[in-house]
Specification:
This protein is an alpha/beta fold. 34% of the residues lie in helices and 25% in strands. The strands form two sheets. It has a six-stranded mixed beta sheet with strand order 6-7-8-3-9-10, with helices on both faces. Strands 2-1-4-5 form a four-stranded antiparallel beta sheet, covered by helices on one side. It binds adenosine-5'-diphosphate and magnesium ion (MG). Adenosine-5'-diphosphate binds next to strand 2 and helix 1.
Length: 249
Amino acid sequence: MNPTPVIAARRLVKTYGMGDAVVHALAGVDLTVHQGDYVAIMGSSGSGKSTLMNILGCLDVPTTGRYLLDGIDVGGLDERQLSLVRNRKIGFIFQSFNLVPRTSALAQVELPLAYAGVKAAERRRRAMAALTMVGLAERAEHKPNELSGGQQQRVAVARALVTSPAMLLADEPTGNLDSHSTKEVLGIVDRLNASGRTVVLITHEDEVAHHAKRVIRLVDGLIISDVRQAPVEGPPPALAGTLTQGGVR
Ligand code: ADP
Ligand code: MG
């Protein structure tokens, strides 16, 4: 295992407002996530999940505390450097897919590579490989409005993984999907984790958290429990089930 944690966060505090109106969205969160882990972050509405996610994703900065992403202290970085770190280190998956309208699946998946300065031929090759990985090679030329919700989220997953990021960060990735598409998308995330990718996902559904190797619960901006369901190495429980049943993926 790579000894440098993907996430090393210490005493993260995020406060909004001031005086009587102050809200401690995060009240001192310590979190270490190693390469290959699969972490579900759970908690009721207002518990601080999105705040934590935004900080871990370098979309926001803590009021106080320290965050090292894959060994990089992101506290000292300016906006431009942060966007570079986001592009190189993190693959985002959002509840609402966040695809670009009127743009083919292939072009969507090529986008982060274009930002990273990858040349056209290589871009195309890697984007096609990512689309193949999510089972959408035949839909490469389709636009979002020509794809089902589940297919759109699979395009988003391909876009998230095409840069080989240090971690996949997913905010309620199945929140807008029916149960069939939920299974499909989680199956892909499970496989990505089984091949070594670090996954952090926010969910309020026990069924989704069941796929993770570790479940963290937030209450009022604090981690109140952190339970390991499976070792960092080896398949997550949901996948282990299909393997022991002799299932071939
Ligand atoms: P969750 O995602 O778990 O629902 P959030 O991280 O969105 O929780 O919010 C945590 C707390 O911080 C809540 O009390 C919320 O009202 C507050 N909060 C979040 N963002 C802001 C903001 N921009 N301004 C003021 N309060 C905020
Ligand atoms: Mg939220």
